[in-house]
């Protein structure tokens, strides 16, 4: 009795304190901004690895200012500055606010109510909380929600697909997944918000009569937990192959379409390491298998990322290569961007993913398109024109959730009308 009380008391104290995880410190790191409007600068940025002697971590871009952002490690800062000056390229090295990279959050106590939509709109959840949220929705909406385990991550966490409106018929499917890149936290919340809102708002729920939507809100749970607890800027999976120096593969370079080609690295320590072979990652294997099982019914595919405020369409594995129905992709991409803009005026740029700064082979959008899925997009969510990057403050989650919902339901509506 007393023992039990004691354990409860300790648990209570533990769960109520502010927990500040001990993170990797990013003191001395810099964000490198390079404007690429001019031809010479653009060519420089596109070959930046050759100029620097290593590939810096590409963060994203501000397409309004035509400026690329890279994350520069402390010991590379001097070298990078020298290289840029030598070539007469204008640039800015911005200090990182290392406070932003330490995540202090209040743990919920066990007696607290279940995870609610308010949580989804105001804070970043743990993987376990995400699963708890999905389980609750599944029991609340037994006829509209089926949870499916697509397989386990490298560290053994189930990759859960939420099948919305699966009634055993052959309706067209829209596939949405999020967070293959661990540090892009807003993508997880945006996916969960979509699931909750399409179920709870009767105006949108009726879309599920004609279309099934499969959402995988966390495609990289190992990476996400690692980013939450250890290294905020972690991007990759957490796999490690025997004798490899560094852990992790870029899941979005691991898909089996032009795998290992342009815009990838074969060195394990790189942020864009493409893995030992196509679909070497259990996460990617689970996703490709699941999509292939239903590919004839899947009419649209969206992968949620951040940041940049972009709607990207294939092909992205190389430059100057467009699918024959590219005009359809542009038309629907623009409809999605307009739906976002109509909400608060936020602008998204609809563009080809290979013609921008970097082609990248082995990405999921290209692979989905290659499987015959007509509308395939990668969405880079907010921000774009400020410097919080992946560290989107919690008070901005709600707006991004709502904007993403508008874009995704626009796509669902297109599919319900065209198929
Ligand atoms: N930021 C994403 C990445 O680097 C963009 C991928 C776009 N698609 C593509 N096929 N290049 O993975
Ligand atoms: Zn990404």
TrEMBL record:
Q: Which InterPro entries match?
A: CARBOXYPEPT_ZN_1, Peptidase_M14
User: What PROSITE patterns would the database entry show?
Assistant: CARBOXYPEPT_ZN_1, PEPTIDASE_M14
Keyword annotations for this protein, in alphabetical order, are: Metal-binding, Signal, Zinc
Gene Ontology BP terms: proteolysis
Origin superkingdom: Eukaryota
Q: Where is the signal peptide?
A: 1-21
Q: What is the lineage of its organism?
A: Eukaryota, Metazoa, Ecdysozoa, Nematoda, Chromadorea
What is the official name of this protein in its record? Peptidase M14 domain-containing protein
Q: Which organism is it from?
A: Caenorhabditis angaria
| UniProt entry tagged with the keyword Metal-binding | yes
The record's SMART domains line, in alphabetical order, gives:
Zn_pept
Q: Which residues form a coiled coil?
A: none
């Amino acid at each position: 009795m007393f023992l039990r009380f004691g354990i409860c008391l300790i648990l209570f104290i533990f769960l109520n304190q502010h927990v500040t995880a001990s993170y990797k410190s990013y003191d001395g790191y810099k964000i490198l901004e390079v404007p690429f409007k001019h031809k010479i600068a653009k060519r420089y940025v596109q070959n930046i690895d050759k100029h620097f002697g290593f590939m810096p971590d590409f963060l994203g871009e501000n397409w309004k200012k035509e400026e690329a952002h890279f994350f520069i490690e402390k010991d590379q800062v001097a070298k990078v500055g020298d290289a840029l000056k030598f070539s007469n390229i204008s640039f800015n090295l911005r200090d990182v606010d290392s406070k932003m990279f330490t995540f202090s959050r209040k743990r919920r106590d066990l007696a607290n109510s279940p995870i609610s939509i308010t949580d989804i709109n105001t804070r970043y959840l743990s993987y376990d909380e995400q699963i708890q949220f999905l389980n609750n929705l599944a029991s609340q909406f037994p006829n509209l929600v089926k949870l499916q385990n697509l397989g386990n991550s490298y560290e053994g966490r189930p990759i859960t697909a939420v099948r919305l409106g699966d009634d055993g018929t052959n309706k067209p499917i829209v596939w949405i997944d999020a967070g293959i890149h661990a540090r892009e936290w807003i993508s997880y919340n945006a996916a969960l918000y979509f699931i909750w809102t399409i179920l709870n708002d009767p105006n949108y729920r009726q879309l599920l009569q004609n279309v099934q939507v499969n959402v995988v809100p966390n495609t990289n749970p190992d990476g996400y937990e690692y980013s939450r607890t250890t290294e905020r800027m972690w991007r990759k999976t957490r796999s490690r192959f025997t004798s490899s120096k560094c852990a992790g593969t870029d899941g979005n370079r691991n898909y089996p379409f032009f795998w290992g080609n342009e815009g990838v690295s074969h060195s394990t320590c790189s942020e864009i390491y493409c893995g030992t072979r196509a679909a070497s990652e259990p996460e990617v294997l689970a996703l490709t298998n699941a999509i292939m099982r239903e590919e004839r019914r899947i009419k649209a595919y969206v992968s949620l990322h951040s940041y940049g405020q972009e709607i990207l369409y294939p092909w992205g594995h190389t430059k100057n290569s467009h699918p024959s129905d590219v005009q359809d992709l542009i038309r629907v991409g623009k409809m999605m961007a307009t739906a976002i803009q109509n909400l608060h005026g936020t602008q998204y740029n609809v563009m080809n993913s290979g013609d921008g700064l970097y082609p990248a082979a082995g990405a999921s959008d290209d692979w989905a398109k290659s499987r015959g899925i007509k509308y395939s997009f990668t969405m880079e969510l907010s921000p774009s024109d400020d410097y919080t990057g992946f560290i989107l403050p919690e008070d901005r989650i709600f707006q991004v959730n709502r904007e993403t919902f508008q874009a995704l339901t626009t796509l669902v509506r297109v599919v319900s009308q065209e198929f």
